[in-house]
């Protein structure tokens, strides 16, 4: 386990505090100025003929003329706040459960990964049948928060130094005592970073959910603005949403920073997990088939129990057995399989392309950041806001510039996978042990070698970020297929939802979810291997 | 370190409520809470009965009659305490009605028929539009005015309109290889930006919006090219229609709807004003555009049939034509899915 989230607060001690602060503030402004310049040029050239990119001042004017969408803002904000709260309560419970009962850890985190990539566009139409529209929006918002936050919390809880835990163990303290007295204290930085990183998800989840309809809300206003071809208003709403989610991230980060403290520890402690106290021999040997089977049985049992206990309509709610029958023995099962697995193939391709593009850009960005603290200070905060932009607002622009085929999907998906990869790589590269750095200096090695050495130390981070980025890529691919390309599982979900074809809808959602769980599980194993081999 | 003990205390109390699978418990609570609130009991004749009607889109002038009925207290007059629920691009109305969360829904005919074929227990009980409002919107400089103009073109279709689009293509003998379909999301931007050559729009919406924005367009009504359709249909659960109390509620709802739409059709600015300033206030609608939309909508709502039989009436001929159109597109519609029985009760004094 390594840094999943962005421990901005763990970047090490800051020297020369005040001047540094002023300087980084100026640099962020400079970065914004560059961005604004690019916007104005784009609006004046491509945007002018296509009427798709309005000038910044037109957007600001719309923002003022529309009175900052007061009511809509409050509505969406309230959904997002509740989603953020419930998502994080669930994440804390999940994180603590993982520590108290380590055997459940794999199962719980795979389930969490499943919630992350089960797309709102698919969950929404199912959920709204069972709960009221407001609850639907809150649940979707919470689902967008849960996994990112749980990953950070779990990382935090497992980052206590082994020596402290061993001390507790030696003194006769049990696991719960260790959790209370040691792990919680060590958990704060990474957990807080994860929670902060999840904050934009709360708002974006609520906005996507609002595409199911409503009287008020940023998503609702955006649907209307897009249909009414009010381009400056669409941009104003997207800008507002971006600013608010970015502000959410910053506020939570700042609060977190107040609670974090300097760890008195050796070089490799922060972010990098301490080795587990116990290792089960059978875990390392082969795939733990029994465990997977137990997980499947539990999920199916809960699934059946919910349908039975709530007496859900068999037309709307399908059981695992129904889905299996749909794909194997029902009339037209062969056709169902070819539809579902054909779509799955396309989605795999789209997700892979999005993951590769996002990672490639993130690697280049991470390396440039290693070179220049100026570039880092200018663009890192802006890069962080990339995941705060609502994808629904971005689609027409991406569709126009990159087309609505593989490249367009890859770009849309990459906006989701880019940030976690960049953040983890940056942290990973900085975690080079002091001794290695001294060695570089002592030998007077050039930048090529410096990059090579840092990259080696960052490799485990690449695998770690893949564990978040790949479920993210699946989510992004499905969403992009839904919004832009009319292919793959995203399209199948849209089509079956429109036709109230619940058998196909449930099967498609199940396949999407299983896909991300499998990837998550495989990457977790790969990660442990990589960390063992490559950790400093 | 003091901060942390405070935090740990707070967290400790949360751990006290140990949950085996945190997330599932959370989801289960959400679902069960909602299940409790979803049962609607029909009250006696005295107090108004709470009823929900699900729209398939946001509260704009497309639902003028319902907004008028609510504002003028027409539902209340018929003993109904009405909640109108807005829809959106990602919402399917049929499951909401099927689940009982709404008694009546307004939806597209093709999706209703497909839902019934997929096992939903629904009946179409009236048609808001006598004519098919779907059209292909293209730029006046590069017009698509007949199906043969579609060849080799790139057409944007929103996900929820795909069944309609596919049906139209089949009705005109166009294969999916002869025209490129891309998904767009209720947004005319791709047409204006030149990304697509045309898109499936709503006759009363996008053409007017674009006209107002200074974009000259050409519209081709699907209704004029082998695809007549009763549209904006009202649906209810078949089992509700068999339940005397529920059926009575549905009849009363449709009475109020009929009166509301009569007023809305007589004065296009009435529904437009309510949408813009009251029920769809936060959508920032343009009053002028809503009035234009309401005016053109009247041509779809009012016809010789409705003048003779009453609003929403579905004549046997129109039902047959609709069934034929949908069947061409692979939706196995049957006349039995449509029923004027509720409307007969509405208009029998």
From TrEMBL, chain A:
**Record keywords, A-Z:** Cell membrane, Membrane, Transmembrane, Transmembrane helix, Transport
One GO cellular component term? plasma membrane
Pfam families according to UniProt: BPD_transp_1
PROSITE patterns in the record: ABC_TM1 (PS50928)
Q: How does the record classify its membrane topology?
A: Multi-pass membrane protein
Q: Where are the transmembrane segments?
A: 25-48, 80-101, 113-131, 143-165, 186-209, 235-256, 289-310, 352-371, 406-427, 457-484, 504-523
Q: Does the keyword Membrane apply?
A: yes
Name the domain of life this protein comes from: Bacteria
Family that this chain belongs to = Belongs to the binding-protein-dependent transport system permease family.
Xref: PANTHER family? ABC TRANSPORTER PERMEASE PROTEIN HI_0355-RELATED, ALKANE SULFONATE ABC TRANSPORTER-RELATED, MEMBRANE SUBUNIT
The protein depicted here goes by the name: ABC transporter permease subunit
Q: Which organism is it from?
A: Lacisediminihabitans profunda
UniProtKB/TrEMBL annotation, chain B:
Signal peptide interval: 1-34
Coiled-coil segments, which residues? none
Q: Which GO terms describe its molecular function?
A: metal ion binding; transferase activity
Indicate whether Calcium appears among the record's keywords: no
Q: Which GO terms describe its biological process?
A: thiamine biosynthetic process
Note whether ATP-binding occurs among the keywords: no
InterPro entries noted in UniProt: NMT1/THI5, SsuA/THI5, TAT_signal
- Residues crossing the lipid bilayer are none
Write out the entry's keywords from A to Z.
Answer: Iron, Metal-binding, Pyridoxal phosphate, Signal, Thiamine biosynthesis, Transferase
Task: Summarize subunit and interaction data from the UniProt record for this chain.
Answer: Homodimer.
* The protein's name in its UniProt record: Thiamine pyrimidine synthase
């Amino acid at each position: 386990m390594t840094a999943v989230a962005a421990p901005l607060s763990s970047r090490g001690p800051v020297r020369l505090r005040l001047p540094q602060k002023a300087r980084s503030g100026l640099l962020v402004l400079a970065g914004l100025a560059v961005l604004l310049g690019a916007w104005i040029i784009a609006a004046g050239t491509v945007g002018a003929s296509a009427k798709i990119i309005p000038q910044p001042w037109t957007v600001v004017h719309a923002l003022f003329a529309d009175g900052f969408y007061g009511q809509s803002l409050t509505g969406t904000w309230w959904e997002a706040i509740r989603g953020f709260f419930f998502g994080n309560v669930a994440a804390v419970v999940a994180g603590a459960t993982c520590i108290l009962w380590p055997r459940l850890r794999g199962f719980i985190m795979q389930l969490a990964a499943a919630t992350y990539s089960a797309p709102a566009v698919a969950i929404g139409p199912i959920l709204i049948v069972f709960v009221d529209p407001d609850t639907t929006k809150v649940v979707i918002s919470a689902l967008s928060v849960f996994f990112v936050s749980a990953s950070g919390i779990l990382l935090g809880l497992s980052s206590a130094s082994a020596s402290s835990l061993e001390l507790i163990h030696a003194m006769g303290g049990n696991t719960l005592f260790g959790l209370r007295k040691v792990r919680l204290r060590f958990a704060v930085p990474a957990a807080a970073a994860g929670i902060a990183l999840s904050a934009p998800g709360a708002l974006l989840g609520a906005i996507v959910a609002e595409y199911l309809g409503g009287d008020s809300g940023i998503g609702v206003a955006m649907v209307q603005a897009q249909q009414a071809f009010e381009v400056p208003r669409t941009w104003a709403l997207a800008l507002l949403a971006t600013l608010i989610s970015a502000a959410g991230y910053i506020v939570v980060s700042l609060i977190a920073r107040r609670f974090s403290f300097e760890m008195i520890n050796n070089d490799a402690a922060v972010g990098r997990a301490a080795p587990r106290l116990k290792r089960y021999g059978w875990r390392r040997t082969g795939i733990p088939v029994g465990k997977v089977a137990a997980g499947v049985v539990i999920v199916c049992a809960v699934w059946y129990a919910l349908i039975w206990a709530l007496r859900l309509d068999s037309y709307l709610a399908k059981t695992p057995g129904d889905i299996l029958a749909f794909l194997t023995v029902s009339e037209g099962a062969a056709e169902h399989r070819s539809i579902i697995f054909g779509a799955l193939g396309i989605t795999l391709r789209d997700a892979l392309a999005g993951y590769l593009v996002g990672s490639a850009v993130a690697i280049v960005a991470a390396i440039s950041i290693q070179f220049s603290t100026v570039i880092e200070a200018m663009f890192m905060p802006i890069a962080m806001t990339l995941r705060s932009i609502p994808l629904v607002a971005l689609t027409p622009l991406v569709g126009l510039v990159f087309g609505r085929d593989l490249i367009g999907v890859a770009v849309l998906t990459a906006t989701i996978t880019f940030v976690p990869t960049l953040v983890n790589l940056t942290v990973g590269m900085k975690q080079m042990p002091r001794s290695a750095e001294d060695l570089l200096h002592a030998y007077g090695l050039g930048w090529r070698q410096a990059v090579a050495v840092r990259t080696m130390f960052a490799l485990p981070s690449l695998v770690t970020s893949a564990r978040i980025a790949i479920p993210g890529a699946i989510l992004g691919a499905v969403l992009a297929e839904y919004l832009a390309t009319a292919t793959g599982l995203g399209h199948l979900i849209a089509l079956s939802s429109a036709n109230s074809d619940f058998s196909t809808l449930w099967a498609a959602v199940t396949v999407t979810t299983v896909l991300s769980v499998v990837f998550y599980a495989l990457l977790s194993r790969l990660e442990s291997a990589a960390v063992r081999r490559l950790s400093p | 370190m003091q901060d942390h003990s405070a935090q740990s205390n707070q967290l400790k109390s949360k751990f006290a409520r140990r949950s085996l699978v945190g997330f599932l418990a959370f989801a289960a609570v959400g679902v069960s809470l909602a299940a409790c609130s979803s049962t609607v009991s029909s009250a006696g004749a005295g107090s108004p009965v709470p009823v929900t009607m699900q729209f398939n889109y946001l509260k704009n002038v497309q639902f003028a009659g319902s907004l008028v009925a609510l504002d003028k207290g027409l539902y209340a007059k018929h003993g109904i305490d009405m909640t109108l629920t807005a829809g959106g691009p990602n919402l399917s109305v049929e499951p909401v009605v099927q689940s009982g969360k709404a008694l009546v829904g307004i939806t597209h005919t093709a999706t209703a028929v497909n839902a019934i074929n997929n096992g939903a227990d629904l009946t179409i009980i009236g048609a808001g539009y006598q004519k098919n409002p779907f059209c292909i919107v293209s730029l006046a400089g590069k017009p698509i005015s007949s199906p043969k103009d579609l060849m080799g073109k790139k057409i944007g279709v929103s996900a929820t309109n795909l069944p309609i689009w596919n049906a139209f293509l089949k009705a005109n003998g166009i294969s999916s290889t002869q025209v490129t379909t891309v998904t767009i999301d209720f947004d005319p931007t791709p047409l204006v930006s030149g990304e697509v050559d045309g898109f499936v729009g709503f006759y009363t919406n996008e053409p007017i919006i674009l006209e107002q924005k200074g974009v000259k367009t050409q519209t081709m009504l699907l209704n004029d090219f082998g695809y007549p359709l009763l549209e904006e249909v009202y649906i209810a659960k078949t089992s509700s229609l068999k339940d005397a109390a529920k059926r009575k509620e549905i009849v009363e709802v449709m009475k109020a709807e009929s009166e509301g739409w009569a007023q809305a059709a007589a004065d296009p600015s009435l529904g437009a004003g309510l949408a813009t300033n009251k029920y769809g206030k936060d959508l920032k609608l343009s009053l002028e555009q809503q009035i234009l939309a309401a005016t053109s909508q009247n041509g779809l709502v009012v016809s010789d049939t409705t003048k003779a039989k009453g609003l929403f009436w579905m004549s046997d001929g129109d039902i047959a034509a609709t069934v034929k159109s949908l069947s061409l597109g692979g939706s196995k519609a049957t006349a039995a899915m449509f029923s004027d029985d509720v409307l007969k009760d509405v208009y029998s004094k």
